[in-house]
Fold each of these.
Amino acid sequence: MNNPLLTSATLPPFSEIKPSHIEPAIDHLLEECRAIVKITTQITEPFSWENLVNPIEKTEDRLNKAWSPVSHINSVVNNNDIREAYNACLPKLSQYSTEMGQNKALYNAYFEISNSPGFSRLNQGQQKTIQNALRDFELSGINLNPEQQCRYREISQELSKLSSKFEENVLDATHAWKKHIQDETLLAGIPETTRTLAKTTAETDNLSGWMLTLDFPCYLAIMTYADNPALRQEIYTAFATRASDVNPDTIQWDNTKIMDDLLALRHEKARLLGFNNYAELSLATKMADTPQQVIDFLENLAHKSKEQAQTDFDELQQFAKQEYQSDNLNAWDINYFSEKMRQQQLELSQEEIRNYFPATRVIPGLFTVVNKLYGLTINEISNFDRWHSDVRFFEIYDQDNVLRGKFYLDLYARPNKRGGAWMDDCVSRKNGPDGLQTPVAYLTCNFTPPTNDDPALLSHNEVITLFHEFGHGLHHILTKVDHLSVSGINGVQWDAVELPSQFMENWCWQKPALEIISGHYQTGAPLPESLLEKMLAAKNFQSGMFMIRQLEFSLFDFQIHLNFDPTKSSNIYSTLSAIRDQFSVVTTPAFNRFAHSFSHIFAGGYAAGYYSYKWAELLSCDAFSRFEDEGIFNPQTGADFLTHILEKGGSIDAMDLFVNFRGREPSIDALLQHNGIIS
């Protein structure tokens, strides 16, 4: 059988990949990787970059390029057969990773290179690759005794399986809930775009009327605009109890035990490796030095933000009471009354804004912005192999007309697609004897799709999301590092990886950029000055409440990993309640099971690292303040950011890169100023 996952094609042949191809391809490539490691570690001459690292990186790149499309289609066109094949491979990949991390001959070979006279002659990226590898050997248990190493392998496999199961449960519980509506009066207040989507969803199920779902565009529209409080309460309750013990409709996808098991296994893994807890282990690959530094950072921000958050909430309560005679603000009322308040005080309607952000204007506008910043040209390619008809494909060229990279764009929500937005690498840059390998990225969002003959109309928040993910994409694509382990986003310290993405969001608030990315979807008329002024005035609307909410998530994540005690029962919701008691200004219902669908920390890479969003936002705000001083499209400032941040990948520590760009270490004031918390 010809297996498309084993071809040497530069791009994945998505239309040819069948679930039956997946496990045989991964088995074959894992054996190939093992064979190369065995051969290279048995050579008799001194170990070097050329005879050890190069061949290993080359074969592992083949494995990565086969697994990447598998992992991707599991997220974007999920079905039972793909899921089964994907899950069959997870323990094998985990076993291989741990096996390599505990391969003493391989560790000794890397150690020999690091201590050889030739090490000083290697370039920065090569040296960093070897230093990171030695660190990762230690974090994989290279120094453990055989019995401990065996236990480490068991833990790693189980963690991999549990994380995948957690995400599946969230996906299944989300898509299991539907509400069929035939009385249109229940939809009062809901925008036409959402109604049209709900009608289309109902028609797909051969039903009349409207079908509401928990897909995020639908959920958010109900929470923000539905005049019917009972409908808001019903969908809030369904969303907030997904995959939990308190929702009888989704009890078969309850994540309670998975969460407890994940925390226990992470703690055991950390203790095996000589750390006191998983938070300490997590920081071994991050910019922050100690758990206390992270806690101090988050609590300092929370104390400085709480007064503003309380003022935000008091004003909202007062507004709801005066204008709508609502004495008690429930959790399902916050978004609704916030939008009413925004519309009244700022005369700003999110739906009115949508009309000026058609995807047909935003996407070319985004490309113009990066052209003005970095001199890049982006061209669409129509002839390519895709996993869904919505997907588009682009190439990026620099000022010298050199191809820098490519990316897929998959913008719209649909069934069997994981929620949220993300960038992932399809192909990573490397350069060696076989020539230059150009990087390729996946950019995935879940926006409301186009309806009828109209283009997709994006909310301003969705525009910000698109810019955010594109920032990740540029970080991956524009790297000039030639070594796989530290090119693009590879090897970047996790609490700095959000710097380029959050940095790009700033252009969504700048008048010269907004003029480029907006225009009425029917007439092309520019965003009216009055509407622009209202948007800018609303930029920090309830920013104190938003800041506190993000800090609540960050502190919760860090503390459940820092303070886990295997002798006591689960600390998940007691920890969350204690943090809310200290900092939150909004009362959360007792039935809320937010953590049961907190995929970032239970299924993603953010365990004891969710604080990275705020840490990186500090870096991005301070980096952008240089553009504010020198001009938001200043070509020299753009060139410096490109050179010092985007092109260097993980080849240099993130703080050194930041200082090289900014001329100093970051200041917290820029973050507070950008959020309107201090003037």
Amino acid sequence: MREPGRRAVIPSSVPLGGLRAALAPSALRFHRALRDPEAAQAECLARVLRAVSGSQQAARVPGFDRVKTPRDFQDAVPMVTPDGIAPDVERIAAGEARVLTQAPVLRFEPSGGSSGASKLVPMTQGLLDEFQRALSPMLFELLHRRPALRIGPSYWSISPMGRKQGRTAGGLPVGSVEDSAYFSRALRPLLSRVFAVPGAVGALPDVERCRYVTLWHLVACEDLALISVWNPSFLTLLMDALERHGERLAEDLERGACRPPGDAEEVRAVLSRMRFTRRPERAAVLRSALRHGLQARELWPRLSLLSMWTDAQAAHAVPAACRRFTGVEVQGKGLLATEGVVTVPLFDAPAPVLAVRSHFFEFLDAEQPGARPRLAHELERGRTYAVLLSTSGGLLRYRLGDLVRVEGFVHSTPCLRFAGRADSVCDLVGEKLSATRVSAVLDATLPALFGGERPAFVMLAPEWAQAPEPPAYRLFLETTAPETRLAEAAAAVERALCEGHHYRYARELGQLGPVRAVRVAEGARRYEARCIALGQRAGDIKPMDLHRQPGWSAHFSGVAA
């Protein structure tokens, strides 16, 4: 007789088989659409126009009811930035109806907020349906092309991590408890039966205790098959926590208890909704893995796939994330924002493929920003574009801020690799320092000074000095190298940045001070802590070579900014 509460009561292959069958029709429609992206995008535009028709937004656009074609749409509707829709979002949050769309707003989701406080994105049923049109083919691809994933549970990083839900003044909820909320109601029961970690973990009040309870469930799951996170450093920090709390977790597994660090009534209330059974055999496996360097294959012999960001700046965090996952396949994720899905990964594609059935897309040529934006079927291999997004959630010609490069095509649909942020430019005094330029400088200068690799944590960020000292950039480095080497690194980065006209001119005028190096400890963990304080979700935090927010020196030194 099985011990009550053990998740093996129903083999994972049973619900996964049903899930695969349920996803198949959507996947088939997606693959058919790849052959004719122009027609698929025309359907998306028509759906977006229907969703917006009758709203306050539509009333502001002269002749909106006469817009039919992409050319009509481009001529009638101006491009918009996140700040441009902020007044509409405030009206929705206050309880006003039919602002961006006819349909009611179900909830708000906080955006990633890469360089400051996050923004609220209104979620309608139409927008959730568009997410489903991309996520269902993606999940089907995993289950169909990698049969090993059908025989064990999966861990999908749970959002929010350490962030409470709330409501706006108008009563709308902010944030979802589980990532499965992006899937249809029909699929959620199937998904919940194959998740290794219960969604209730996301209700815990802080990241450290959320990680501890997550690790209890993961270690207890001997047949884990898939780990899916966003930022690779999220996985690194999770495994660091396993090493840090390993013995305590082993004791809890033996006892059938869960004792996350600290104690609070709020934590106990969340834990009371979960079941923790005695798992002495898993405690023994964990102790053995801790003695042998904590290789994931010892803990989870059936683990066959890691899914994470692998492009742009996230690429630097991949080796550290994979250090404990020797022999496990890695699949790069597509480009998915809170506002919508841009691309989804396919195993045989040269890069993630455009989510051609989800939203209506336009692409600004990075080399010709004044030209009319191109449509999906007009993109050229090798060129880089900035993404414009129009959705049934009411975003029209929305500047997403992401750059993508065309790597090839699946049938007639472009495959797009994330190339960085188009809006990541720091400009304190006219230096116009871009994230792409900083990444190139760090890649070119640091490996030669630190044994052929970049340090474990690297970030450049501005600091405002006390007058009369000018502002300057700080180069934060996590390394055991001597101070002289850090000074050499700062000087090398300074020389390279001075090759840029605007930065060099600001330095010559004395408006900007020189780069200075700052040694940091536990850089990734402490970086995450401040990003959470700035309003980001732990699972969404991206590594950044250039952060536009000042105050990092005070944060890393432990002094309140």
Amino acid sequence: MAGGKFVSMNKVIPGAYFALQAQEPVQSALSPTGILAWVAPQNWGGEVETISLGDYARDNCYGKIGRHNSDDRMQIFSQYCNTLICVNPAKSRAAASATIRAAQADGINLYIKLGIKGKLPDPQTGLGLSASVSAGKVSLALTTDDAELHPIPAGYAKSLSVEELVSGNDDTYVAELYKSVSGSPINPAGMSFTSLSGTVSESISSLVPSGDAFWVGPSDAEGSLRCQRLAGALTAYAQQAGTLGNKISIVVVALQDGKKEVRTTVDGVVMDRQRLTSWSKFQPNIWIRLDGEDTFAPSPVDAINLSGGSDGVIEPDAISSDVFATSYHYVALDNNVNIDGLSLKIEVDGSVYTLSLMDGAEVVGAPVVSTGTLAHYPSFDLPDGSVLDLSVVDAEGTAVADNVDIEPTAADVTLSGGNHGVIIGLGDSLRLLADEMFNVLFVERQDAACQSAVADYIGDLSDNHGKDRRAVICLGSESSSLENGYDRMELTVVGQSMDGDAPLTGYCIAAMSAGASWNEALTYAPVPLTGDPSVRLDDGQLEDWLEKGIMPISKREDGAWCITKDINSLHGDDDGVSESAKKNRCVRLVQTFRNSVKYVWETQYVGKVTNDPLGRDMFKASVCAILDTLVNGRGIAQYGQNDVVVRPGNKPDEVILEVRMTIYDSMEIVYITMSF
């Protein structure tokens, strides 16, 4: 019998196959765990994609973010988490495409029957009708074999454009169009009559009444008109942006039963098969969709390769102003500044120019005043402490050093672009996560500016928005004397990188932290990465790092590299914070409790339950249910009824909750005394 590990459920030989995955959270009364938010550029997928363990089991990760199950980050995710929220920070991404059929102009000989409603006399000997075509115009005229015996009635000469013939305007129209070969009707729709040539003529004696119209048509192909029939284009587009779209191909294969099979392949692997008699029957799959004229049948063809997909760039939008004066505008020297809602006000008083940064009607920072010309390099201090430095450039983007004359009535100049001050090089990615439920955040980019921005972002969510989230950064330094510049219980700082790969190391620790429950610590948990840490620490250095709030990696006696102690970046003895708050197990439990109470309050009580003794007792019972779960999971000690107090606030709609709990920790240190 076969067996072993499995990544995808694609085995053929009978046997038992195993995969190690994180256990789904069993504390249904508590907020969800095992959710990792990951900000990283991808070569496929939308701006935000959510990957579940079910997606991993069905091998859907490739179709969502372009990563196979065998990818190291996907395997780490499946081992520790149950949900992965992927945010792509790249801008200006493009989706690949390919032309299945280009627009075509097919030359077709057509018989055209012409008629003039109610204007022609009854058929009579000697009169005839001629139709000539020149430069897209059809000229109709009555002819006679004897002007005296058979005079032509006045007003029976007419020149019509092809557009008039097709649309049937006025009193003349095209009754039918015939292919010269088969004689089958052709709908005028989709015809372009810009290339008409030749002449048609017929004796009026052959006219046959048809309702109130008389029709005449050429008797052979020599008198036919040459028209262009336009066949519309059909294009395949990648369903998502990214360079993975450039590996998509469409192959049309002729089967033995005469049918055609359209195959969508990605990097040479067939992902979708459809048997079609017409392109109109094609069903969009997760890889491609079609757009255009699809009424024709697929024809066997070599692979049609999509191209033009791009992953975009991880850069902030350039801050620039509207054009002022003739063709000048301001650009910022640093685009990582929050300029939302700000504008520039230009005032001119004689030779004095005043440039003010405005937030609505309020002036931001000190105005910049110059004499004789508008300031070329103005600078403004922003409320958040950042600085907006501007420079005047011309229409080509070249810095301008000459005078710029401004009219005294110049209007405000709006500003646009920038990175909104959130995080250098990541644009609005973190803003997208503000409304997402996740446990731990990790940003693939691990430079100092990014790490500082992540710390500020997590702190802002907790301090100003009431959202308990955590984050992991990896310093990955080669020095053993690291300094911790952070002091937050929501942030874990890893000081080493495994095998020199700080992004992968940080991602792994973040996944482990997201998947850890509130009643367990990651202390001595093995780090499932190959290689050695960038810095090997002795016992003295380990103690130093732990006191600084830096999580170190060390080797257990069994040879596994593991997390030495599951701590956050809180450090110092004089901050008034208990030692338990510096342990991530405590933080996970506290955040789980707060998130759970917040969820129950928002979904079951706000606007629904009366703020009276009965309503407050109901809320207390809900809080106790959450605490009971923590007690049963051995996260906290048994509490008493007096440890949970719910009382009215100062206003009729206010409720005050007071909770006292004793939080347990995991066993980590043992002191052994032996007597003989």
